[in-house]
Amino acid sequence: MKIAVVTDSTSYIPKHIREDLHIHMIPLCVVINSETYREEVDISAADFYEEVRNGTKLPTTTQPPIGEFEALYSKLAKEYDAIISIHLSSGISGTFQGAVAAGDMTENAKVFAYDSEISCMPQGFYVLEAAVMAKAGKTPEEIIARLDELKASMRAYFMVDDLTHLQRGGRLSSAQAIIGSLLNIKPLLHFENKVIVPFEKIRTRKKAMKRVADLLGEDVEKGHRLQATIIHANRVQDAAEWKAELEQLYPTVDFNISYFGPVIGTHLGEGAMGLGWTIRL
C-alpha cells in the first residue's frame, strides 16, 4: 500500500526535509497591509517579522480553502492508496475540518485526517513519524496508532514578549494585558483541550524558561527517551543558547531548533519562545 503524508505550513518542517521524506504541504496565509502571503511559500519567517516591525497594522491569518485540499488529494489519489493528513489543532483553526471535508469528497484514495491538537514543530513530530512509517510500509491504521502514542506524551509550553497579540486574539483581557506589561509578567501558555490557555503566570522571562526546563526534567526523570524542539519567534541566538543549556542539563534528550512562522507568530508576536517534547518511539 502506498501512503502519502500531508501537513499544513504551521508544522514548520524545513523544505529540504519535506522533500527528502516526500511530505506534501498546504500553506495557511497571513495578511499584511491588505497583501496575502502563503507562509513557507511567499514569505519567510524572518521577512514576516521585518514586515510586521515596520508596519502600522497587525496582520491577520486565513486557513486554506477546501478547494486546495481537494486538488491535492485528487492529485495524490492517482498515485497513492491512502493519504494521512496531519494538521494544527482544530481548536485554533478550521484547517483540520477542511481536510476532513475534502477527504470525504476524495475518490480512489482513503484520507485519514489527523488533528494534532497542537501546532509548530510538535505538530511536525507527528508528520515526520508518519512519513518514516509510510516509507517503511506500515499501514494507515498502524501509523495512526503510533501518532496517538506520541500524543499521550506530547508537551509544549510557550512564553511571549508582547501581550498585545494575545489580548487582540482574546487570550487575555485588556486589563490583564496592561497589568501584565507593567509587572513584566510572562504568561506561560500551553495547549489544553485543543486550545491555547494560560498554564502559569511568571514574573520574568528567565524564570519562565527555567520553569519550562524543569517541566522537561520531570519527564526525563521518568526514564523516557525524549525528542524536544526549541521554538523561537525571530530569536535565533536566544534559541541556540537555550539549546546549549538544555543539552548540558539533559544529555539524553534529542534537541532541535525550530521557529514560530508567520501564522503562529501573528498570534504570539516576535520574541516568543517555546519548548515542546514527546517520547522517541
From TrEMBL:
Keyword Cytoplasm set for record: no
PROSITE patterns noted in UniProt: DEGV
UniProt cross-references to Pfam families, sorted A to Z: DegV (PF02645)
Alphabetical list of Gene3D superfamilies matching this protein: 3.30.1180.10, 3.40.50.10170
Statement: the UniProt record of this protein carries the keyword ATP-binding: no
Protein origin, superkingdom: Bacteria
Keywords: Lipid-binding
Molecular function terms, GO-annotated: lipid binding
Name this protein carries in UniProt: DegV family protein
Organism: Lederbergia lenta (Bacillus lentus)
Gene that this polypeptide is encoded by: degV
